[in-house]
Amino acid sequence: MTQIFPVERLQNIRTPFYYYNTNILRQTLDAINTETQKYAGYHVHYAVKANANPKVLSIIREYGLGIDCVSGGEIQQVLQAGFPADQIVFAGVGKSDWEIELGLDNDIFCFNVESIPELQVINQIAAAKGKVATVCFRINPDVGAHTHANITTGLAENKFGIAMDDMETVIRLAQSLPNVVYKGLHFHIGSQILQMDDFAALALRVNQLQDRLEAEGIQTDIINVGGGLGIDYADPLAHPIPNFSEYFATYHRLLKIRPHQTVHFELGRAVVGQCGSLITRVNYVKQGSVKQFAIVDAGMTDLIRPALYDAHHKIYNITSDQPEEIYDVVGPICESSDVFDKDIPLNRTQRGDLLAILSAGAYGEIMASRYNCRPFPLGYLSEEI
Ligand code: LLP
Questions:
Q1: Are 266 and 326 in a shared domain?
Q2: Residues in contact with ligand 1 (CB, 6 Å cut-off)
Q3: Do 180 and 318 sit in the same domain of this protein?
Q4: Interval 210-266: pLDDT, tens
Q5: Are residues 218 and 157 in the same domain?
Q6: What region does 172 belong to: left with phi over 0, alpha with psi -120 to 50, or beta?
Q7: Which end of the chain has fewer CB atoms at under 10 Å, N or C?
Q8: Is 1 a member of any domain?
């Protein structure tokens, strides 16, 4: 463990905190660039909802990725981090007027529009500013993903996107409005997807829809297939880098792209998930009547994924080399769902030990809350401690 975690240096930092291994982050970004460079016109927009820590963003920026935003706050955050506005795509089912204005004022690359009323509002606000907004339509492809129900988004029953049946109507409407210009289609079927078949199904659906549009004489320049590539939560040490090669190759093999088209991806978890760990200190070891609890100083306020999605993050005691025993790892919050994992082996644990909760770089720090008036956890890069 000491090869992976600089335990002595971590001991000096107030727990709980996020620790970002920049070697893993850089290797991940290198792998993304190596794979996308194989295919002409492929662009990755980092889905900043996964992690907006400024220090993490500054590394991602070095690698030339664009950005996928879902709020005005995210747009402000990435502009501050120095990302070029003309590589920002802006999605979201309920954009507020000020957020649309912010996007227009900064001439972002495109708005991913999810409804007719939204299209009309964007047209109105753009007209008032004397601008023309580039729009793509988020189409609900009715493609399921093999993932947790809370993070599947591409089924007809989900709130996201525009029904396939309405696609031509909304495009025609956009073409009739003076202050928006139709450029393309946007999709996103869900998150933490490990079966390439799901992406294959989306690619085939996009082909069908493209044929339909071509038959209508509608030109489409941008195909955005969203994000969703998963990571190995069960064995992050064995698989620190997601399978980008297979992911992009799946699209390349199946998605029929016209010569003038560009293909856009919105990857979040796969970019930052494996570089981050939540480091927490054991406050107490309690022997219950049937269980042994390791009570740590991090809680669901610092990492909500286990409580919200039944997610399992691998946990190691990085300060003990004693034989393993079985523990429930629980936080201090007054909620019975404040449990990181149950019945897991840890090297024998005692008060003061440090635990690392792995694969927490995505949807960890950014989803922290102040419930119980707890302070937000801070994030540190490996190269700064
Ligand atoms: N594009 C759109 C339109 C999205 O809604 C999302 C994620 C992404 C891209 C990025 O997906 P990724 O590549 O990270 O899978 N908090 C949950 C995940 C929510 C994902 C929401 N949308 C979790 O902790 O598992």
A1: no
A2: 47, 49-50, 68, 91, 151, 153, 188, 191-192, 226-229, 266-270, 305, 309, 362-363
A3: no
A4: 999 999 999 999 999 999 999 999 999 999 999 999 999 999 999 999 999 999 999
A5: yes
A6: alpha
A7: C
A8: no
